[in-house]
């Protein structure tokens, strides 16, 4: 079973700025923790980041037949992207929406997620641990499918 982790814009900056919101972990250290947990669960993971909305759409499309679930931190595109929502709707692969911060406790423009209605569920507010929770949720969704 393969879980595809997709990360959107500016998440490559994790650990370098705004630690009070996003914590001190880098995306690379989060990936290491996810890989450790994935090994214990006996599943494989692929981890990618891009600042490009179209690239995220392409990766979601390509997940059909190659990954059993997607864990997606779409970052700011969460709040704006009809293109991502359409890609998730079309792909036929379950998507777990994830966020480091609690988007509902922040600025009002972050309260609305364009993608939430087409995702299996949302994990938000647990810092780097949100990625572990998303892995667990994705594996569980696959096992119960
Ligand atoms: O909490 C999350 O994971 C977010 O998806 C992060 C996005 C934000 O736009 C969403 O509302 C919530 C921002 C990612 C940018 O990350 C940075 C990390 C360090 C320094 C600057 C930006």
Indicate the topology:
Layout: E1 2-7, H1 19-22, H2 27-41, E2 44-49, H3 53-62, E3 69-73, H4 82-91, E4 95-99, E5 121-124, H5 129-143
Parallel strand pairs: 1-2, 1-3, 3-4, 4-5
Helix pairs in contact: 2-5, 3-4
Bound molecules: ligand CA2.
Describe the structure concisely for a colleague.
By secondary structure, the protein is α/β, with parallel strands linked by helices.
Task: Report what the structure shows.
- This protein has a single domain (2-144), classed as Rossmann fold (3-Layer(aba) Sandwich).
- The radius of gyration is 14 Å and the shape is globular.
- Helix 3 (53-62) packs parallel to helix 4.
- The two termini are 13 Å apart.
- Helix content is 37%, strand content 18%.
- It contains five helices and five strands, in the order βααβαβαββα.
- By secondary structure, the chain is α/β, with parallel strands linked by helices.
- Helix 4 links the parallel strand 3 (69-73) and strand 4.
- It has a five-stranded parallel beta sheet with strand order 2-1-3-4-5, sandwiched between helices.
- Ligand CA2 is lined by residues 10-11, 13-14, 17-18, 22, 73, 75-76, 78, 99-101, 103, 110.
Enumerate the spans where pLDDT stays under 50 for 5 or more consecutive residues: none
Helix proportion of residues, in percent?
25-40%
Structural class: alpha/beta
Q: What overall geometry do the principal axes of the alpha carbons give?
A: globular
Q: Please give the CATH architecture.
A: 3-Layer(aba) Sandwich
The number of helical segments is 5
Strand content bin:
15-25%
The helix-strand sequence is: EHHEHEHEEH
| Radius of gyration over all CA atoms, rounded | 14 Å
Distance between the termini: 13 Å
Bound molecules: ligand CA2
Number of domains: 1
């Amino acid at each position: 079973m393969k879980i595809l982790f997709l990360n959107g814009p500016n998440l490559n900056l994790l650990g370098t700025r705004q630690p009070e919101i996003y914590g001190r972990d880098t995306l690379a250290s989060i990936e290491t923790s996810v890989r450790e947990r994935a090994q214990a669960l006996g599943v494989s993971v692929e981890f990618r980041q891009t600042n490009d909305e179209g690239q995220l759409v392409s990766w979601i499309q390509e997940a059909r037949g190659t990954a059993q679930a997607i864990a997606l931190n779409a970052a700011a595109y969460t709040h704006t992207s009809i293109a991502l929502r359409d890609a998730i709707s079309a792909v036929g692969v379950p998507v777990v929406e994830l966020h480091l911060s609690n988007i509902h406790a922040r600025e009002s423009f972050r309260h609305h997620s364009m993608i939430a209605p087409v995702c299996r569920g949302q994990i938000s507010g647990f810092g780097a641990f949100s990625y572990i929770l998303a892995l667990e949720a994705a594996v569980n969704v696959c096992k119960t499918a």
